[in-house]
Design brief:
Elements: H1 2-15, H2 20-42, H3 51-59, H4 74-78, H5 82-98, E1 109-114, E2 126-131
Antiparallel strand pairs: 1-2
GO molecular function: RNA-directed DNA polymerase activity
Protein name: RNA-directed DNA polymerase from mobile element jockey-like
Keywords: Nucleotidyltransferase, RNA-directed DNA polymerase, Transferase
Length: 135
């Protein structure tokens, strides 16, 4: 528990930003604008991804990456059935149409990875790595 609190304090101090709320709003506005531009230029009003696009993305997945908090591994996606891929496609299209992500895709698992020395006792010798859903 002591290590967790120490890492938490270090991360909080390292990534603290007084303008965080302002940054979040600017970033959100920029992302929403980019998504809206993309949807109007590249897609019809129904914003729909094609199965070929999904399969192309699945074929690029790295099987050595760890699964996220949902425990869906890239290998599972690569070996998924056509029916399962159609469900994923429906979910992606719904997400694009509603401009919303499922909450499970927003959850991250953070691990502290040593920078150089594997047995260092200094929190500054570790870096955070976030693992999110493969989907």
């Amino acid at each position: 528990m002591e290590k967790v609190e120490l890492f938490g304090k270090l991360l909080d101090e390292t990534f603290k930003d007084k303008n965080l709320n302002n940054y979040d709003n600017k970033h959100k506005e920029k992302v929403e604008e980019e998504v809206a531009n993309y949807l109007t230029k590249e897609r019809s009003n129904e914003a729909s991804f094609k199965i070929s696009e999904l399969e192309q993305a699945i074929n690029k997945l790295n099987i050595s990456l760890a699964p996220g908090p949902d425990n869906i591994h890239n290998l599972y996606l690569i070996n998924s059935s056509d029916d399962f891929r159609k469900l994923i496609l429906d979910l992606l299209n719904l997400s694009a149409r509603t401009n919303a992500l499922p909450n499970a895709w927003k959850i991250t698992r953070i691990s502290m990875i040593p920078k150089k020395k594997a047995n260092s006792t200094s929190p500054k010798d570790y870096r955070p790595v976030s693992v999110t859903s493969c989907l």
